[in-house]
Amino acid sequence: MIKVVGLGPGHSDYIIPMATQAISEATVVIGYHYYFQFIQHLVHPDALCIGKELSEEEKRAEIAIQHALEGEHVVVIGSGDASIYAMASIVYQKVAEQALDIPIETVPGISAFITAGSKLGAILGHDFCCISLSDLMTPWTTIEKRIRAAAMGDFVTGLYNPKSKKRYWQLQTLQRIYLEYRSTETPVAICKQLGRTEEEIKITTLGDFDVNDVDMFCVVLIGNSQTFNYRDHLITPRGYLNRKPETGSEIQQASFSEITNNIPQNTLEKDALWAAIRCIHTSGDYEYIKYLKTSEQAITIWHKYLQAGGTIVTDVTMVQAGITKGYISKYNNKVVCLLNDPETLKLAEEEGLTRTQAGIKLAAKKYPKALFVIGNAPTALIEITDQIQEGTLSPTGVIGAPVGFINVIESKERLKTITEIPYALITEKRGGSNFAAAIVNAAFTLEQAKL
Hints:
Layout: E1 2-6, H1 17-25, E2 28-32, E3 48-52, H2 57-69, E4 74-78, H3 87-97, E5 104-107, H4 112-120, E6 121-122, E7 128-132, H5 140-152, E8 156-160, H6 170-181, E9 187-192, E10 200-205, E11 218-222, E12 228-230, E13 233-235, H7 248-262, H8 270-283, E14 292-294, H9 298-307, E15 312-314, H10 317-322, H11 325-331, E16 335-336, H12 342-351, H13 355-366, E17 371-374, H14 378-390, E18 397-400, H15 408-416, E19 423-426, H16 433-444
Parallel strand pairs: 1-4, 1-5, 2-3, 2-4, 6-13, 7-8, 15-16, 15-17, 17-18, 18-19
Antiparallel strand pairs: 8-11, 9-10, 9-11, 12-13, 14-19
């Protein structure tokens, strides 16, 4: 029988009862000779104690197997937790390689980074990882990949084997990599000889971190982007005070913030950028920042117009349905769509027009100062631009987002030539009713833009 036992950081108060019992029942105890000072009071007087050097882990495992095969109750000791960078791995591996039928058990201990986390307060409050900087058995190229991944992933990070006489450069390299991804103000804790009389904890920052303060008896903890220092405590929020958005308005606002924080570089003015954000929110596609084009201050002009109760004319009911009802109710706007009006049907038949074109032509007579919003039919946009060009129509503005393949590009090119009327359009063959409505909603809510 082999039990691999973690002793914790060294103080007797940190040795758990299971470990105490295992050690007292052992007939053979094997470990790094330095650790025996912590368990002499627990070892049976008749037990055989075998101390080895730091570099003799494999030898310790082989000796443990030899004594176990002879029927001894063997305990292999190590500091911290036996399964974390400690003897459990090599003992189990050796037993497995030889396909031996030896009962084997790991008795947990309090690890260095858990001890450090407790001493510091709450630095391990969210996702964390541990990295050993020892390259004796792990290639540095592998260690560096893990360092970069942890830094990029914003993990709170515990560093084992951070430095020794021969391992003097790795920690400084890690610091340089972390500074590529973390603020210089990121909290760092150097925890030395934890749980022992020589215990010393120093809290600093990633920018001020001096690798010369670290030796082989230290574990180093690096906070994530949320970790903060309060009265010598390091606290990493779990998120209880920043719950996920739940209501519709909260989710929408969180979405806008996410888009704003990740939007590609652009030269759009604030009002046009807000409209672009609404279009990206509608599509889930950041590319739409390239497809929105507006005349100068168009969204700002419409913001004032709509909040003063201005009328909106749409070509299809889907645009009408997409404009937020709460805004219409709040500002007493009229949203008109004559697509299915009897007069529209009659006009379309008499003049050989599409229903959308006829509906817009009729609306132009009834609401000549309205904001015209086209989200479907290129013929409707052509009708508006032709009337503006002829001087028979002077609306408050035109939103052109028809979608399709026939006459779409031509209708939008017409709109681009209009200089005296504010306009917005979705370029190329892209668009649709949802984008047309999104631009209107952007105009309604311009004061909400946090840009």
